[in-house]
Amino acid sequence: MTAVVRTEGLGRKYGRRWALRDCDLAIPAGRVVGLVGPNGAGKTTLLNMVVGQLAPSAGTIEVLGGRPASGPAQLAKVGFVAQDTPTYASLTVADHLRLGARLNPGWDAALARDRIERLGLDPARRAGRLSGGQRAQLALTLGIAKRPELLILDEPVAALDPLARREFLASLMEAVAEHSISVVLSSHLMSDLERVCDHLVVVVDSRVRVAGDVDDLLTAHHRLTGPRRDAARLPSGQHVVSASHTDRQSTFVVRTDGPIHDPAWTVGEVGLEDLVLAYMTPKTEDRPALEALR
Q: Which residues form the ABC transporter domain (predicted)?
């Protein structure tokens, strides 16, 4: 497998607090990767190390075969759209494209102009007068037109309305298909990730809890519902991800490579959102089952 990002024991510490630790990852090329987890889990810290804005406190990281931000050639390989899709309010759309051309040696001016025209953005309009969706599309244009091999998007659509989010994601997938870009997309919006992502990384409490192709993860995880039982009584091959109990019933989300034969269990499929919530939930809680909370 060719990995666009590979880490071993990667960590970042602020004072005595680890923002990310013991991170072992191999993100495959040619994928749209969803990076998810609660606020403060370490997602933005990881992305900032991928693009070279932060140096590791521990471990190693390799991006597209090199050290992040190690020189102009390495910088040219990675596009980055940070949180809040930053643009310069006083600059026009055309000014942004000229700035992109000056800063990026591989800048594709024709691609940038074509995207701006298809989006209906007025080149003479200042970014501060654009809508949130238009600013996001302008930021995405800047990221794509540098012709990166890897595009990093950190919560790019969090502040957009549903229509603007859908348009942004459609535009992103079009660019992925046309230009063979690998993408890492951080988002809290599971519906968006379900629409576009084929690989998943879940970060909780500063650690990577699970990573893999979405189809493989969904196949390997199951929801078990049945009479109340202690998790320790489950077979060793069934790794308990989360557990919740009522007085008489237990509900487990488990990961297993083999079939589940115990007739006491009702076995159900796990959707992407359920899977992510399971990894974000403490393993054992005496509370209503997950189904009752949805």
A: 5-230
